[in-house]
């Protein structure tokens, strides 16, 4: 089955619940509400063979409402295809469901996204900093983060 045929099957199964869908750079892109994320990811894994969660990131659109776009990338080792899920969340409550129940790799990917953007993942109990240190103030990939902000100094531990 070709990629367009496979993408059409996914669209038929997930739309209209998933919202808009299009192909970009050879990858199917689905726009979702936060409530649809976990159900859609489960369907992609169980019914369509997208067995790898490649990445979780976000995009900050400070002049748009909702402000943040949480982006998940999946890969099917069986069909050699990629799918991108986009979910918009507001700055006042940047929260989406964790995909940890479906993909173990979500544990670290969600921690990174939380570090950099402040997105919270319901169901992931370990959102400790993974790239930044404890006590770092703010989220450095947000567009309103001050470039010249000084962070509290952290004393080095002796070895």
- Helical residue percent band: 10-25%
Q: What is the SS-derived class?
A: alpha/beta
Most strands sheet: 5 strands, mixed
> Could you name the CATH class?
Alpha Beta
Distance between the termini: 57 Å
The CATH architecture name reads 2-Layer Sandwich
Order of helices and strands: HEEHEEEEHE
Radius of gyration: 17 Å
Mean pLDDT: 92
Q: Low-confidence parts lasting 5 or more residues at pLDDT below 50?
A: none
Q: Give the CATH H-level superfamily.
A: NADH:ubiquinone oxidoreductase Nqo5 subunit
- Kindly give the count of domains: 1
Please state roughly what percent of the residues sit in beta strands, choosing from under 5%, 5-15%, 15-25%, 25-35%, 35-45% or over 45%: 25-35%
Key terms for this structure?
3 helices; 7 strands; 159 residues; two-stranded parallel sheet; Beta Polymerase, domain 2; single chain; alpha/beta
Structural description of this entry:
Helix content is 23%, strand content 27%. The relative contact order is 0.14. The strands form 2 sheets. The protein has a 5-stranded mixed sheet with strand order 1-2-5-4-3. A two-stranded parallel sheet has the order 6-7. It is α/β, with parallel strands linked by helices. It has a single domain, classed as 2-Layer Sandwich (Beta Polymerase, domain 2), CATH 3.30.460.80.
Briefly summarize what is shown.
The protein has 159 residues and is of the alpha/beta class. 23% of the residues lie in helices and 27% in strands.
């Amino acid at each position: 089955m070709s990629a367009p045929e496979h993408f059409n099957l996914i669209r038929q199964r997930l739309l209209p619940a998933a919202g808009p869908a299009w192909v970009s750079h050879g990858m199917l892109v689905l726009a979702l509400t936060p409530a649809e994320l976990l159900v859609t990811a489960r369907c992609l894994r169980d019914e369509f063979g997208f067995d790898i969660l490649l990445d979780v990131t976000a995009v900050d659109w400070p002049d748009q409402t909702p402000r943040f776009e949480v982006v998940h990338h999946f890969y099917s080792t069986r069909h050699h295809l990629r799918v991108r899920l986009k979910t918009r969340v507001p700055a006042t409550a940047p929260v989406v469901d964790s995909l940890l129940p479906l993909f173990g790799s979500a544990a670290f990917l969600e921690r990174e996204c939380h570090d950099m953007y402040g997105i919270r993942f319901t169901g992931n109990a370990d959102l400790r900093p993974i790239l930044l240190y404890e006590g770092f103030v703010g989220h450095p990939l947000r567009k309103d983060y001050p470039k010249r902000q000084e962070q509290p100094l952290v004393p080095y531990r002796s070895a």
